[in-house]
């Protein structure tokens, strides 16, 4: 379920930020995203940074520790973590300010080649041994009879919502690593392909873009086919629990992608 995003910083959270930064001159809350109660650009006399966080009693508070642990391993792909602060009932992460716009996945967008390049870079990263993340076989076990087809050692982001992909002046920065996982290196590209279909691409066009990522281009077709089936099952489950318009669109895109395999 999505997390309610606050449009103003609570006083206790602002106090925790101020303890680390000094006086806050102003801030702007971010409207996109589904996983954080707080997400805001913070301006001080010395700098601008991006802070996100959850109350310490939130059921997904574990995602804060995961993001903090993953961050050093995705340098140059994700904004750098500056600090983590816990107190006043909050767990906050502060990142360098990656001032940019959300990626445009529609056909003809100049962002597509930039995102494909970033996916290629990410697909070459190995999941760090010292960081506990779920495996894709484990995440997909209830959605497929053959979860081992998704096994691998690659570090995966797995949440290619366009608000998680920022186009900045010097390239792409991928944010929100709460659902980072370990698995086959082609999986992120396959997940992106479904988003491309949802954004107006034909399945063939989406496949051509995904195939720019070498790990996807060389993946076993049977494994990708099984993943397409499992992805439909995932979105069916999501829409059963929370049938918002965008989730129904994603289910339709996943089914279109599956039918093309």
Tell me the layout of helices and strands.
Layout (H helix, E strand, L loop, with lengths): L10 H11 L2 E6 L8 E7 L3 E8 L6 H9 L10 E7 L2 E7 L3 E3 L8 H13 L10 E2 H5 L13 E3 L8 E4 L2 E4 L6 E3 L3 H12 L4 H8 L3 H4 L3 H21 L3 H16 L1
Parallel strand pairs: 7-11
Antiparallel strand pairs: 1-2, 2-3, 3-5, 4-5, 6-9, 8-11, 9-10
Helix pairs in contact: 5-6, 5-9, 8-9
If you had to describe this structure to a student in words, what would you say it looks like?
This protein has 261 residues and is an alpha+beta fold. Helices cover 38% and strands 21% of the residues. It is built from 9 helices and 11 strands. The strands form 3 sheets. A 5-stranded antiparallel beta sheet has the order 1-2-3-5-4, with helices on one face. It has a 3-stranded antiparallel beta sheet with strand order 6-9-10, with helices on one face. A 3-stranded mixed beta sheet has the order 7-11-8. A hairpin with a 2-residue loop joins strand 9 and strand 10. Helix 8 (221-241) runs antiparallel to helix 9 (245-260).
Order of helices and strands: HEEEHEEEHEHEEEEHHHHH
If you compute it from the alpha carbons, what radius of gyration comes out, rounded to the nearest whole angstrom? Answer: 18 Å
Shape label = globular
Strand count: 11
Strand order of the largest sheet: 1-2-3-5-4
Estimate percent helicity: 25-40%
Report the mean per-residue pLDDT as an integer.
95
Oligomeric category: single chain
Stretches where pLDDT is under 50 for at least 5 consecutive residues are none
Quickly give the structural class: alpha+beta
Q: What's the end-to-end separation, in Å?
A: 29 Å
């Amino acid at each position: 379920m999505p997390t309610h995003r606050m449009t103003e910083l609570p006083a206790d959270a602002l106090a925790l930020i101020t303890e680390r930064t000094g006086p806050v001159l102003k801030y702007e809350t971010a409207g996109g995203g589904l996983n954080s109660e707080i997400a805001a650009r913070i301006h001080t006399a010395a700098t601008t940074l991006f802070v996100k966080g959850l109350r310490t009693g939130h059921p997904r508070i574990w995602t804060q520790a995961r993001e903090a642990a993953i961050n050093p391993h995705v340098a140059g792909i994700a904004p750098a973590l500056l600090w983590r602060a816990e107190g006043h009932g909050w767990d906050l992460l502060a990142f360098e300010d990656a001032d940019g716009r959300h990626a445009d996945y529609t056909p003809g967008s100049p962002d597509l080649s930039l995102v494909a390049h970033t996916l290629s870079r990410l697909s070459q990263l190995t999941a760090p041994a010292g960081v506990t993340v779920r495996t894709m076989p484990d995440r997909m076990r209830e959605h497929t009879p053959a979860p081992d087809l998704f096994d691998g050692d690659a570090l995966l982001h797995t949440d290619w919502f366009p608000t998680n992909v920022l186009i900045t002046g010097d390239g792409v920065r991928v944010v929100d690593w709460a659902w980072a996982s370990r698995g086959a290196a082609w999986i992120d590209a396959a997940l992106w392909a479904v988003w491309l279909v949802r954004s107006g691409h034909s399945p063939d066009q989406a496949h051509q873009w995904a195939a720019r990522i070498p790990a996807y281009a060389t993946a076993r077709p049977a494994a990708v086919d099984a993943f397409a089936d499992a992805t439909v099952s995932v979105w069916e489950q999501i829409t059963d629990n929370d049938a918002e318009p965008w989730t129904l669109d994603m289910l339709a895109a996943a089914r279109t992608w599956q039918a093309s395999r």
